[in-house]
Amino acid sequence: MKPIIVWFRQDLRLADNPALDFAAKSGRPVICLYILDDETPGAWKWGGAARWWLHHSLAALDKNLRRHDGGKLMLRHGPAEIILPAVVGETGAEAVVWNRCYEPHAVARDKALKRRLIEGKIEIESFNASLLFEPWEIATKEGKPFRVFTPFWNALKGKAEPGKPHPAPRKLTFHTHVKSDTLADWALLPVKPDWAKTFDWTPGEAAAHRALSSFLENISDYARTRDIPDKDGTSRLSPHLNWGEIGPRQIWHAVKTSAHARGDGAQTFLKELGWREFCAQLLFHNTRLPDKPFDPRFADFPWRRSEKDFTAWCRGQSGIPIVDAGMRQLWQTGWMHNRVRMIAASLLIKHLGIHWKRGEEWFWDTLVDAGLANNAANWQWVAGSGADAAPFFRIFNPVLQGQKFDPHGDYIRRFVPELKDVPDRYIHRPWDAPVPPPDYPAPIVDLDEGRMRALKGFRAISKG
User: Fold this and answer.
1) What does the DSSP assignment read for 99-135?
2) Is 160 exposed, middle or buried, given 0-12, 13-18 or 19+ CB atoms closer than 10 A?
3) Phi, psi of 76 (to 5 degrees)
4) Which residues contact 268 (CB under 8 A, 6 or more apart)?
5) Nearest-CA neighbor of 112 among 54, 42, 51?
6) How many CB atoms are located within 10 Å of the residue 305 CB?
7) Annotated catalytic, 303?
8) N or C: which end of the chain has fewer CB within 10 A?
9) Of 369, 396, 385, nearest in space to 290 by CA
10) How far lies 312's CA from each of 264, 278, 380, 414, in Å?
11) ω before 169 within 30° of 0 (cis)?
12) Half-sphere exposure of residue 443, counting CA atoms within 13 Å on the CB side?
């Protein structure tokens, strides 16, 4: 029989992988292929932290495939619209299957590829592996996409349960006579300097399931602990989910059947999965979401341009302790606690008056869990320009936020050692200490002045 190509993308797992399952059941020899496509028009090229994760995730997937006789992950680099038909021609494959991506550039690319391959008499099948429901399956009574999360979430809960996940195929037969790059060829890892040496992650499918199992033991406390950055109260599943090392159906049903899923914790966590679905729908129906305000009024917002302030924010040198702790956590680990992400983003947008796209681009480059839909929707949410966004005039006070969620400064001291000897009383306002810490910068913005400037800018666009 002629081979079938399984085109891996953001579905780097064997279990609950509909495309791989289809290929295994077809009885054909399978070619497992990953294409590093940095050249599709409109694509956001993976940032540095994401490329680090991708390297290790691909290595883990290849290791899992090699546990099957003859298994191997084939690697190619280049435009998918050229590489995929070329591999079809080289191998004589008669079918290609993949799990759908929903980013605008991917949708356009995949549609064009599908037409081209079908014209060449190649069988094509695609599946949903990354969402609980397709972006077009949850709509208002008028058949339109939701713009507000709560009714979207209620509609999602009102649907039948998401399909149950399938186990990994027990038997796979492979076609391995395919030229392949080596992972080292792609140089995805940082070298000089190795800024990822402090990352504390283990990418891969097995690690994703370990993270889920560990989280489920404490999920009953999730609603209480998820906002405390010094506690391990979050799932830390976001990068595994972003790269498809675990699927949302697997997580959903694991939570639903867990003996530990009591109280508000489980429902609060499932609601976070719902927010991820909402973000995916927003991007699918609003293809300019990463670069254009959802609320058109904000196209005229009077943003400031200050490279000095932006650089200080990026480096965790803003002089605002909770923000600097978050930004340094991001640099040191490739991840930032979600509550602190909101505080840091709010300072950049509202107190510093810098365009949300600058922050979006920085997070894209430095987060191991940077997904286009989540990143764009969440930055616009904080900016007040997105769907169901927090009103712009509700401006986080980072000092009060720090006092509320890190009252003793444990999180701050972990990532800002210059403040380790500052008493709790001054940890969130070190500039008020009798002897301010000498190695820590003064705030780059007066919080009251920044707030008033932001409100003035908002009033200007609101009049229009």
Assistant:
1) E---SHHHHHHHHHHHHHHHHTT-EEEEE--S-SS-T
2) exposed
3) -140, 150
4) 222, 223, 226
5) 42
6) 10
7) yes
8) C
9) 385
10) 39, 32, 22, 19
11) no
12) 21
Q: What angle do CA 110, 113, 114 make, to 5 degrees?
A: 85
pLDDT tens string, the chain, 464 residues long: the values are 899 999 999 999 999 999 999 999 999 999 999 999 988 888 899 999 999 999 999 999 999 999 999 999 999 999 999 999 999 999 999 999 999 999 999 999 999 999 999 999 999 999 999 999 999 999 999 999 999 999 999 999 999 999 999 999 999 999 988 999 999 999 999 998 999 999 999 999 999 999 999 999 999 999 999 999 999 999 999 999 999 999 999 999 999 999 887 779 999 999 999 999 999 999 999 999 999 999 999 999 999 999 999 999 999 999 999 999 999 999 999 999 999 999 999 999 999 999 999 999 999 999 999 999 999 999 999 999 999 877 888 899 999 999 999 999 999 999 999 999 999 999 999 999 999 999 999 999 999 999 999 999 999 998 75
Residue matched to tokens 């909402």: 278
379 catalytic? Reply is yes
Q: In the annotation, is 313 catalytic? A: no
Residue that is written with structure tokens 């294409």 in the block: 35
Angle between helices 338-346 and 372-383 (to 10 degrees): 50
In contact, 269 and 235? CB cutoff 8 Å: yes
Q: Tokens at residue 129, please? A: 């592996």
The H-or-E segment that residue 449 falls in is helix 447-463
Cα–Cα distance between 177 and 74 in angstroms, integer? 10
From 7, 356, 364, 381, the catalytic residue = 356
SS3 54: helix
338 catalytically annotated: yes
Active-site option among 81, 123, 125, 272: 272
Q: How far apart are CA 203 and CA 340, in angstroms?
A: 23
Active-site residue among 137, 195, 338, 431?
Answer: 338
Point out the catalytic residue in the list 186, 275, 331, 362. Answer: 275
